[in-house]
Amino acid sequence: MPKFNLDTFNKAYFDRLRSQVIAARDRGIYVSIMLFEGHSIQFSLPPWRWDGHPFHKDNNVNGIHGDPNGDGYGLESHTLKIPAITALQEAYVRRVIDTVNDLDNVLYEISNEDHADSVDWQYHMIDFIHNYEKTKWKQHPVGMTTHRKLGNQVLFDSKADWISPSKFRRENDPYEVDPPVAHGDHVSILDSDHIPILRNDHARDQRSWVWKSFTRGHNVLFMDPYLEYMKDRNYPKDSKPDPFYNPIRRNMGYTMRYANRMNLAAMIPHNELSSTKYCLANPGSEYLIYAPSGGMVAVDLSSTFEMFHVEWFNPRTDKTIPQQKTAGGDIRSFTAPFRGDAVLYLYR
């Protein structure tokens, strides 16, 4: 079998990468370029684990050995323990950046679901990208994700521009049932791959997760199983996606619709301004509030005496119900005109 020469790049690979990012740009899509894959070297079965890796000592002509402890995983290649490998990885990252730097629709992710000893290596790569892009025309957001033994604190302590926290409790994990406020140190992305949407998560649970996350300042991603049959998880039929997941699909679209209407850059989470504790607000200008149980919602409008438009939105039916204007200057109460969870939008 031919072996890798780690000192040369495959031009066709980088040409394809660039063409795919451009195709996504032309369709209004951002691309997250995952630079390294940490899940496969831990959990995949041969030959998709270490057996076929370029840093396996039998797979390259450069004498690179990325598994010095011989355990068959090569986890050392995602640490700083082997300087020759780190140098090769930096060269590859430079080439990726050179390939797509002029394009706006690019995010970088260091590695997918990597192991516990990879943290310093991931921090190094974040710094490396930031420093290299300082010499380039454009700078792009660099992200870090977590998995199992890493925990979420390593994300909060990082210099990444965006992060993707994960759930770590089997039941009642906060990122699943009551997402903590995203304070703005990093762009926060909540991904259903790491906070799973399961078959026992009914329509209301799906809607609630989307709106709670959005009003707490997070960005929601759904890893849609689409047409892939997955026992106990996804049942597509006649080339159509499983309708079980329609509530999360639709409500992500509804939140995007409000994001486009609002001055989103000025909106930050303000739990204290709403009795429901789920509130995105630019105080004195506009407020978006999620009421998981519907009913009466109290909103603190004391920052201005101006008049506000009042709008209720039903996330089950996609129906908007405008109501009479209300004045600021005090805490005002509003009652949803329908049963179930509800969204309240106040704007001047």
TrEMBL record:
This is Putative collagen-binding domain-containing protein. Transmembrane segments: none annotated. InterPro entries: Collagen-bd_put (IPR024749), GH (IPR017853). Residues 267-339 form the Putative collagen-binding domain. It comes from the Bacteria.
